[in-house]
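Hi R.,

Here's the chain you asked about this morning:
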Amino acid sequence: MDIDSSFSSLPGIAAVLARGMDEGLHIGVQVYVWRDGKAVGDFAMGESRPGVAMTTDTLTLWMSASKPVAAVAIAQLMERGRLALDDLVARAIPEFAEHGKEAVTIRHLLTHTAGLRWVETGWPQTPWPQIISRICASGLEPNWTPGQRAKYDTAISWFILGEIVRRTDGRPYPQYVREEIFEPLGMSDCWIGMPLERIAAYGDRMGVLQVTSKPPPKPLAPYDTPLAISRCRPAANGQGTMRQLARLYQMLLNGGHLEGARLLSPQTVELFITPQRIGMYDETFGHIIDWGLGFLVDSKKYGYKSLPYSFGPYASPLAFGHHGFQSSMVFADPQYDLVIAIAPNGTPGEIAHDRRLREVLAAVYTDLKIA
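And the predicted structure, written out as tokens:
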């Protein structure tokens, strides 16, 4: 793919992503980069789904980059005195205290040290109350003591965090995050559990994440269906533009406020984005990785070459954020007053994605002359 002048502010990033399109790693991409109080890159390339152009207004699927939204919700309720990080989960959800789970705390959920076993939740066909009941009826990983081991949890803990929000506040999780996070921040096109009527109204603005590990590309099932988009999955089915998702991180870099909207105190932001789980071997990723409260933090010191889902070779030790499964890369780097939100819409396999991730994030810092 040829690179035109509209990408001149970030030519290295554009070149890497265009090459990825030529190689079939993705069919399109959306990019937003913010530094020192202004956008320095805001563009889209390729297709959002076959036959439909990707634009900066396309709603992309965030996958696990959705997880920090739950962390912000928990942080808000903590500040309001409704819960504490070391509260037992069973304080909010009494039936959770079954099958050895009685010692699990909110902190354990946010740091991936709870040890919840994988449960076949039946999402998206299964309604929310039944999903919660299935998780509550399950046990922990064998020989697991909460807080003593680490294992990245792709989904289960985040259903429970969403239920804690619901039972503590009274509003369903999708409603809470819309009213307390997205709307105050001007993220009007961001959703976790989008109403069916909104899906229809967005029409061609709805992007579809593609499986690109072997040709031809095909939608990532079941996330491409209206049912899956509408049924809340707090860990993975966030939808919105990269420009708007970046506003969440601009708020965090600003100490909890953005353009007149105060969501958190600076002290709470600092607590959540700094390492809370330190030096622990993550049994999912097979690597030592530090973690904040719901946020991945820079862990290059444990060996960059083998580190999965990193923030690239030049990110500062202060960087924090979250990636999405073989796709989105969204994080902030306070040392450089920098927010990066990039969503290639192809899942090409872990090896190919790791190469793409490293090349793209190296290019960001090189283009901005801070490498």
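The domain at 5-64+186-367 is CATH 3.40.710.10 (Beta-lactamase).

Let me know if you need anything else.
M.
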